[in-house]
Write a structure and sequence with these properties.
By secondary structure, the protein is of the alpha+beta class. The chain is 33% helix and 27% strand. The strands form two sheets. It has a three-stranded antiparallel sheet with strand order 4-3-5. The protein has a two-stranded antiparallel ribbon with strand order 1-2. Strand 1 and strand 2 form a beta hairpin. Helix 2 packs across helix 4.
Length: 146
């Protein structure tokens, strides 16, 4: 097993005409550190990324509360509902509506019920709350038989 070596140092050698001995000095390796300029919180955080992460978390929460209507499950009915959901900074759902129907009223009703059962959603982070007091998002709920 090889042993780690210390970083190499630059060596300077000088010969003096009056004294033929060698003068050797070691200089430490140069290190330059640059400090980053401070940025505001809103500049450092991408609002689109915040929204995307929040929608992902909210969708997972709604899917945990989703119930497949037995009658439709038995008949093999599948569908996808796109919901518009408005939440306040505390994660309370202020409004939800079907934005694009699955084509089946029972699936659409269950999507709305899933949103209600999933409440409260996670509170908005401080960065998100600075952008807006309420957030409107689109949540897609799929009813698929496996």
């Amino acid at each position: 097993m090889a042993t780690p070596q210390a970083p190499s140092r630059e060596t300077t050698t000088a010969v003096n005409d009056d004294n033929p001995t060698l003068n050797t000095t070691e200089e430490p390796p140069s290190t330059t550190t640059t400090a980053a300029a401070p940025t505001s919180v809103l500049e450092a955080v991408d609002p689109a990324q915040l929204r995307s992460q929040y929608v992902k978390t909210a969708t997972e929460l709604v899917n945990k509360h989703k119930r497949y209507p037995r009658r439709l499950e038995y008949r093999g009915v599948e569908g996808t509902v796109r919901m518009a959901v408005v939440v306040n900074r505390h994660g309370e759902v202020l409004n939800s509506r079907v934005e694009r129907s699955s084509g089946n009223t029972l699936l659409d009703k269950e999507a709305l019920a899933s949103i209600q059962r999933a409440q409260p959603f996670p509170p908005l982070s401080d960065e998100m709350a600075k952008i807006g007091k309420t957030w409107t998002m689109t949540i897609t709920i799929s009813f698929n038989l496996r």
